[in-house]
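Aim 2 progress update. The chain analyzed this quarter is reproduced below.
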Amino acid sequence: MQPLQIVLTRPQKESQNWLDGVMKAGYQAVNWPLIEISPIKPDQQFLNILSRLETFSAVVFVSSAAVEHFMNAVQKLSNTSWPAVKCWATGQGTLNTLIRWGVAEHLIMAPDHFAPQFDSPHLWERVKNTVNASDKVLFVKGSDENLPPSPLFKDDLNPPSGSNWLIWKLQESNIHVDTIEVYTRGTPQWSAEQISLASKAINEQAIWIFSSSLAIENLSNLLPNQDWSKGSALATHSKIASKAKEVGWGVVHVSRPVIADVLKSLKFINPF
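Predicted C-alpha cells:
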C-alpha cells in the first residue's frame, strides 16, 4: 500500500470538498477528524434568543458547525424562515453553509474571497461601519468541553484571539454582545490501531493539514509520547502554525483556508 501523503483533520461534514480536491490532485489522502462535535440541546436561553432574533443588528456564526446546529434547532422549534437579520461569517465555508440553509446572500457579510485570511480581524474590516453604539449583536458559537472560557477583557497589547477578539472589538465600540453555545468541541475517541496509524503517518512525514489549534491540542493528547519534530504540517492560519511550532512540529507551512491555495502550497512543500 502506498504511504499516506496527506492527512486532513477537519470535522467530517466540512472535509469532503478538501478530501476530493487533494485526491483529484493525485495525493494519497485521508481525513481523520480531530474535533468531536456534539450538539447542545436548546434550553430556555435558546428560546428567549429565538423570540427576539429580530432585535439583533447581526448574528455572528463562528463556524459551519455553528450554523448547522443553530439552524437545525430553529427549524425544529419554528416554521418561520430566516428573518431579515444580517449574518456575519468569518469564512467561506460558514458563508456557504448559511446559503445552504436558505439565508439570502445579501444578508451575509464575510471577508472578501480574495482576503489574505478569513478570520475575525478581516471580518471586522467588513462590518465595523455597519453597526453603531447601543446596537445588539448575537454570537452563535461552540464550547470546548475540556477548556475554561477564554477571558475577553484585555488591552491592545494583549488582545484575546479567535471569535473572542471580535467580541472584544464590539464591546470596545459600546455594542451589546449576547452569546449562545449550540455545540461542544471535544477530543475524538481513537482506537489503538488509529493511534498507531497516526504515529506512522507522522514518522513517514505525511503532511498534516490543520485548520484549528484545538485539533493540534487534541492530537497531542491522543499521542502523548510522539516525537513531533519528525512531523510536517500545513496550517490555515499563522496562529495555528504558531501552535504547531509550540508543540514541536518540525516543518510548518501556512496557507489560506481555500482548497485551491492548499493545493498550491502542497506543490511548493513537496510535489511527491
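Confidence is low (pLDDT under 50) at residues 147-151. The domain at 38-186 is CATH 3.40.50.10090 (Rossmann fold). These observations will guide the mutagenesis experiments scheduled for the next reporting period.
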